[in-house]
Amino acid sequence: MSVVRDLRVLLRLRDFRRLLALRLLSQGADGVYQVALATYVVFSPQNQTSASAIASAMAVLLLPYSIVGPFAGVLLDRWRRRQVFLYGNLLRTVLASVTALLMISHAPTWLFYISALGVTAVNRFILAGLSAALPRVVDAERLVMANSISPTAGTLAATLGGGAAFVLRLLGSHSDAVVVLVGAAVYLLAALASLRLSAELLGPDPELVLPGIRTALSGTAKGLASGVRHLAARPHAMRALAAMTLMRFCYGALTVMVLMLSRYSWSSTQSHGLALLGVAVAVSGAGFFAAAVITPWGAGRLGPGRWIAVCAGAAAVLEPALALPFTPLPMMAAAFVLGLTTQGAKISTDTVLQSSVDDGFRGRIFSIYDVLFNVAFVGAAGVAVLMLPPDGRSAPLVVTVAALYAVVAVGMTRFDAQ
Hints:
Layout: H1 2-11, H2 14-42, H3 51-76, H4 81-105, H5 109-133, H6 143-169, H7 175-194, H8 213-218, H9 220-232, H10 235-265, H11 270-302, H12 304-323, H13 328-356, H14 359-387, H15 395-413
Helix pairs in contact: 2-5, 2-6, 2-7, 3-5, 3-9, 3-14, 4-5, 4-7, 5-14, 6-7, 6-11, 6-13, 10-11, 10-13, 10-14, 10-15, 11-12, 11-13, 12-13, 12-15
């Protein structure tokens, strides 16, 4: 298979291997930490979860730093990215440990959320930095394949980390804190892994690096405005980003629905509901892996823009057919399809942005991308609050999501964002 051959070629590149290892550890820790938070909020016996509670948690964790995100991108284009990975993961190690202590001590909810917000804030730098650094370790000819392997492998690492967290969560009453401490340990390993990369390797270029926070922040607003203008001048990148934002919205709305179905419709006990949610996450992760295998072929033949259209069109047809029964088995199939189509579209979008955006702007552009991801997810949760009944069964929500997928498919069919 060409995928296996290209993967072998990429893995011969020492710096790509090291950046990939850093991503796997970092996103694996994210999976552990985020599932621990989700199960603490949704499945803890003391919590009577509703769609509004889930939406509120998402808003508290994601929206504040979605506002800060573009400013983080300006700093990413001014700081050495390797140093961001090192100090960012060290900081997340400390903050995740604090979260575990707050869980054990049953501290007030607002303290718990402040700690979680800190981890989320640093995450904006890490994920955007990983995407911005990738073109520094592979050549342009292999960028599509690298975008298939690296972010998808990171998503799979997060899925595996989340799966491990589900298992640990089922072991005992205090396992939420134990899971968070496991995540903190993996964040520490990610920090150590970053030391294997040269401080100058990942960019930005030396003449763009500024020595201190105050100096960098003084040009933040101007840098952000120039980043937006840079993106606006590239219509292919704008269209791909808009399509991916809508698809992320759809994925978020269905995620909340599956959470509610697992909690209240598919099981009579919290442990059974948690197990079903874990299966859904694992199946969706398998879809991410399938996307990594299929997307290089599809995007190579059709172009990234038209491949996004194919992914959205498949989701528009299959999502209502599988989700409307509201039963576990068809919904697991839907989780696979949506994992495949969402990740396939994301790989294509990453490639369009990386090939269209200059290196000096990549940090802020990928931070804007990250902000749109979070805002779309939180917005989807807000819509789900209005449409989901207590048991999570909502045909109007399923149909609305299918219509949005169809809009993306029709819109992107007109363009070839190569």
